[in-house]
Amino acid sequence: MVVACGGDGAVRETVQGLMRAPSEKRPKLSVVPKGTANILAKTLGLQVGPFPDFIHACFKQLYWARSRPMDIGFLNDEAFACFAGFGFDAAVIEAVPEEQKRRFKELAFFGAVMQTMFNWNPRELRFESYDAPKMRVRGHDRDGRSIDVKGYFVVAGNVRDYGTRLFPFMQNARVDDGLLDVIVVQTRDLKELVNIGTQVLARTHLRNPHVTAFQTGRDIVVESLEAAVPMHVDAELLDRGTHCRISVHPAALNVVY
Ligand SMILES: [Mg+2]
């Protein structure tokens, strides 16, 4: 068993390494949560918190641990345990300095969302909204129907919560259903984006006409029809690109929790 002691970034690095091992020899993964958001640990129900909780989490894993298989996603060759994004959310991650992330934890991301959405231009004294490039998403849903939609913001996830429990963006995602939940936001109108954001808090965003959501067990292809866009896996930035392939490896890893 390999224990990743850190945040979701450390977990992702560990998963990336474990996935290189042949499946029959692949060690189990466990997590001692010590990061900013600890999304995977929270999803698995591991204790997350200050010192006494941390000790409890260590002992729990030593003495009362169970294990279960979980799916691993890939964006091209980069593994992810939680989610991958293409466009807007990666631009938000680009806008969060490491020092702010340490100091303000998840709150640093809210600041960066605002900064990315309402980009303040000090020279012209006005706000410039984020100029999202148009993207195309192709694939198949879980029933085999073919999907071909255009949008401005794409996330494929294996967990429900997007950064925090308050924001269950991939509302129906499970770590072990063999599927990825794909959300495509099909508007770049600022008012509508804010509207979708508040609907996520109320868990009604999947009914919004500007949101397309589907589950898939097969590869999806995301391409930017305009400029190269930033991409991320588990909030770790990759090089900008104009297209990517996102896939899922069902039950690829055994996690101890
Ligand atoms: Mg899933």
Question: Which terms summarize this structure?
Answer:
257 residues, alpha+beta, Tumour Suppressor Smad4, 2 domains, 8-stranded mixed sheet, 6-stranded antiparallel sheet, 7 helices, 26% helix, 37% strand, globular, binds magnesium ion
Could you characterize the architecture of this molecule?
With 257 residues, the chain is an alpha+beta fold. The protein folds into two domains: 2-72, no CATH class; 79-95 and 129-251, Tumour Suppressor Smad4, CATH 2.60.200.40. Helix content is 26%, strand content 37%. The protein has helices at residues 8-18, 39-43, 51-63, 88-94, 98-104, 107-117, 190-201; strands spanning 2-6, 29-33, 67-75, 78-80, 83-87, 118-121, 126-129, 135-140, 146-151, 153-157, 180-185, 211-216, 220-224, 229-233, 236-241, 243-256. Strands 1, 2, 3, 4, 8, 9, 13 and 16 form an eight-stranded mixed sheet that branches. The protein has a six-stranded antiparallel sheet with strand order 12-11-10-5-14-15, covered by helices on one side. A two-stranded antiparallel ribbon has the order 6-7. Helix 4 (88-94) crosses helix 6 (107-117). The longest helix is centred in the first third of the chain and has 13 residues, at 51-63. The model has no long low-confidence stretch (mean pLDDT 87). It binds magnesium ion (MG). Magnesium ion is lined by residues 71, 158, 173-175, 177, 179-180.
